[in-house]
Amino acid sequence: MKTLFFFEMKKIWQNKLVWAGLALFLLLFCGGLSSFLAVNVPFGRELAARYEGPLTDETVARMLADFKPTQAQLDLWKTGVDHININNMQSAVHLRFANSDGSWNGKTVRDVFGSQTIQVGYTSGWLCISRVLVRIVLGLSVLAVLIASTAFAGEYGGPESILLTAKRGRGMAVQAKLAAVFTSVFALAALALAVPLGLAFSRMGTDGLDASTLFCEMEYQYYTSRNLTCGSLLAWQCALILSGLFLLTAAVLAISAVSRNALTAIVCAALFLFAPLLPSVSERSPLFRLLGLFPIQQFQFSSLISVMLTDRIPYAALVLPLSALLGLAALFTARRQFALHQVL
Amino acid sequence: MQLQIQNLTRCYGTNTAVDHVSFTLTNGVYGLLGENGAGKSTLMRLLCGLLRPDTGEIRLNGKAVSLRGEAYTGLLGYLPQNFSAYPDFTAREYLRYAAVLKGLDGTAAKKAAEKRLKKVGLLPQANRRIKTFSGGMRQRLGIAQALLNDPGILILDEPTAGLDPKERIRFRNLISAWSRESIVLLSTHIVSDVEFIADEVILFRAGQILHFGKPGQITAVLNGRVWECRVDAAKADAISRRLKVSNLKNEDGKTAVLRVISEEEPLPGASGVTPTLEDLYLYYFESGKTNASLSDQTGNGGYER
Fold this sequence. Notes:
The complex is a heterodimer. Chain A is mainly alpha-helical.
């Protein structure tokens, strides 16, 4: 099994298409990290530390007083510039509690957020890293498609004759193939998650992990509509990334096993990945729950944690086990289809 | 060991590639001869389990091979018609991989790979990537992989394609030695290969067996129908168009010797000669029709050795 696994890994990493996918992934990976490194974290953390704690009307008043706009800013706003993001806290408070001249708009914390408890803290860095992860995982998903779609279909049209007539060709060799594909994809996923998150923790420590994602600067105001802490937002995101990758890899393996050749498999797998983005479906529509199962929706996780299953449980909680089940069914199909493959 | 093929049929749409074929193979070399599209490759794929038959079954020592699973595939060695390996693997890597696939482990796989590399003369090129190999070298690699597990049933589809004469001789010797304890079925267009090494010949046409027997036996049906005549070289072409000529050889530029297949003496002075497999092949596959009177098929299309 070890030897077969080694050779299957070799086949994957000798594929030029996989290297092209890896290049795309690394481009998005490095681009994402550099955008995170551009964030002025120490300044943001220091500022957030001044107002840490539950958001109250008193905190709002203090912030509005501290971040009174200068005449230069007001002049800019008058010329049509909606908002100048002077700093993360100013942006967060002005967005919800200020008029265009920077004066209090008369709304209380209860008016804006209802009965929810809003924890003030440093959110910008965590939300930035979350957005970076979305981009990186998009690159990773393309790479996963290229790795998995050629796993079986790449054998068709020649080498499969030897595989399927060999003693271990329909059993252990298939297991080795699946293991090699999943190892490749999930090793890259570990890299894609560990490096940005590791960098984030090294720059921000745990500051802001308990802060509410709703009290964030303007850039992230539509990022999520639920009151979550940055920590739970990232935990949901990581879980959905992993479940989406499992489902994507398993489904693409099944597509690969039933396709006639590698090109057909790649095209079908790409459609499987991206087609769920095409229909414009509201999060309230029942159809969204179906679309939400697709990997691409799991990678763009925010809708799945905003749509609720019950008062307290998001739809994402159902998506995780369903993805695992669908993924296992796809793996079963892939194995079976390859074993039944006929060389015409 | 006995491999029984019973009433095997396989269709592609409306085209019947293998049509109710039955025969039995025991240890020895069997040459499968037939024109392109006769169904030879389909028959071989059916025997290897790469295709499922529409009807019929294959039995090994009385038990259906579909029930034997790995016990059957463990006995198989197969060289497909268009053998293709992983271009970025070296020959050594590929054979080690194939050996593990065939059930050998660790040192045994390495030893088997080295032994076969030596046997097919690829040892000096063992560390070269397969994509740099010539057609003949790839074919030798294909033969090597087919032999890795010391197969009890060796199925070779066009094994000598692309081999130079020296390699073909080496291959024939290898197969002859192999056949003592195993069943070897090989298909080829090169009739001389079959003539040299096959214990029995299966003449295959339109998915059915026309003849099955020892080369001497099956060519006997052409006794008295193969002639050699000496003609004026200038007239040889015209005569060739009129008669079924299996060979034309120019002698000294003035005279040509024609080998003619004909029911009657084709030209005055023609002398009868012993028919060969090539004559038989030409008789069936150049005529465009089956000569039922010459066929020794049994009524149900079944052959027993």
